[in-house]
Amino acid sequence: MLRLITVQGKQIEPYLDALGALRITVFRDYPYLYDGSLDYERDYLKVYLEAERSLAVLAIHGDAVVGATTCMPMADEGPEFQEAFVKAGHDISRICYLGESILLPQYRGRGLGRQFFKHRENHARSLSLGLTTFCAVDRPQDHPLRPQDYRPLDDFWISQGYQKQPGMQATFHWKEVHEAAESAKTLTFWTKELK
């Protein structure tokens, strides 16, 4: 049976490797094409353990973590996440950053994506954070590794009340599956004012 559990801060620790392995699996596919390692993931995800106000929602089937989503106050994130908002004159202290929302392919189409947004937005409200945001990698339409049947998630995000902010971007570095070394990628932010 599929169930959702929520954990915060240090409670995430027992699930850290499962979350890292899931990120590696899901983000290996287009559009991220991420060639990750568990060591890198442990280091990357450490910020969620250290932030008391972070949240992870895990979709568990049997004993396996098959989906997950995370969020935390933007004030607890690194400067590379904050920079676009600081430049645009936003108050960082009222923003909740929505991290990954990932599901193994066989669990998609069951409404879990909507539930993930609901959990994260409710968490933001509980912390009195009025703006939620996430970022998504930018890829050209004619990217050589784009699958024929690829469907961008833009329509889904719009249906959840998010608006793309073309002028607000961040740059991150990771190694793609066909790269010898890390390279820079731009990601564009999407935002929503919570009611």
UniProtKB/TrEMBL annotation:
Question: Taxonomically, which superkingdom?
Answer: Bacteria
InterPro entries attached to this UniProt entry? Acyl_CoA_acyltransferase, GNAT_dom
Q: Which residues form the N-acetyltransferase domain?
A: 1-188
Coiled-coil ranges per UniProt: none
Gene3D superfamilies named among the record's database cross-references: 3.40.630.30
What is the protein's given name?
A: GNAT family N-acetyltransferase
Q: Which organism is it from?
A: Prosthecobacter algae
